[in-house]
Amino acid sequence: MHRRAAALAVPLTAIALTVSSCGNIPQEWRTPAFMRMGEEQLDPRLPAVSGEVGEEPEITFPDDQPPTEQVTGIVSEGSGENALVRSDDLLIANVVQYQWTGPGEGEQVEGQSSYETGAPDIIRMAQMPEEITNVLVNNPVGSRAVFVFPPLTEQERQQAEMSGQPAQEGASVLVIDLMDRFNKGSVVSGEQATNGGDGLPTVTQEGHSEPTIEIPDTEPPEDLETVPLIEGDGAEVEEGQQVIVQYTGVRWEADENGDHPVFDSTWSRGGDPFDTTIGAGSVIEGWDEGIVGQRVGSRLMLVVPGDMAYGETEEEAMGAPAGTLVFVIDILGAYDNPPPAESPAEGGEGSGGEGGSEESPAPEDGGGSEE
Questions:
Q1: Domain 11-182 is found in CATH 1.25.40.20
Q2: Which of 27-41, 142-156, 217-231, 340-354 has the lowest mean pLDDT?
Q3: What would the DSSP string read from start to end of 15-28?
Q4: How far is Cα 19 from Cα 70, in angstroms, rounded to an integer?
Q5: CA distances from 218 to 153, 200, 252 (A)
Q6: What is the CATH number that goes with domain 202-335?
Q7: I need a surface site. Which of 10, 50, 160, 306 has the fewest CB within 10 A?
Q8: Which letter does DSSP use for residue 7 in this model?
Q9: How confident is the model at residue 197 (pLDDT cuts 50, 70, 90)?
């Protein structure tokens, strides 16, 4: 019950080369060189970055050679103490990568700007190296961070080339704009307008705890049922977008004890929000049809018939839950995916566009994850 985990379009491309391409972080630049103890100014070796957070930045490179240690700084601080980034958050960020090749010289790396693609990156802090997370933690949403990573050593260049990655010239510079965050246990706001019922399951929830789903002693509906328990006021989810959700799911059919135990849930993984591309066959048909067109901020109850879930012929082989499934889904966010990367004709699907989620609640297939 896993899905493919695709690389974040910008951060992991850059970080793989600059932070962990060969698995060895040079000791002399393990500790970021920004705002050292007792200092409140930015390191003067940082490029000058201007422009509003949320818009493509403008960057000016110093008239010096790139530094030989990591240099990092928060060049614009957002507002709001109630929106501070935490070490286990899922972040929505715009990221741009540059090459700093010499004194006063540098350029944006082609294709490495989420502002150009119109698709922000989804960053799971728990999966990022400390060289990134140590800088972002405890800064508010709306902040802009700048990272300068030293030029690759000759050994690192050789290892990058051997792995098929381009060996970038000069220092690597990342500008990361923190646009939004979701923490463990994030749920939509508002009171439920309905608990369901009237022949369908009923849903209750206390605070931010896992919703409780009670199945009626009736036959399940034959068609997909989508019930907004909380109607959000955000944008409508569009086909092909990446959605951020919390969810829990049970089978309509009771087990041998007469119970309906949860078969999959983000709550069983500590309340980490789940992200997936919707409306593109990455998840079961019931999710694709039930979520597209709903508004961000909504809590949905989906009653998914077996033929829109795993299908009768594959359930036993996959170990997937059989028959009609009932999900409660909080739609926390929806964001555009970047356009597909140009690839050879034999490339096919599955290369990018999906976030870094570890496990799927309802994938279209039962394939293993790809790191």
A1: no
A2: 27-41
A3: HHHHTSSSS---GG
A4: 10
A5: 67, 9, 9
A6: 3.10.50.40
A7: 50
A8: P
A9: confident
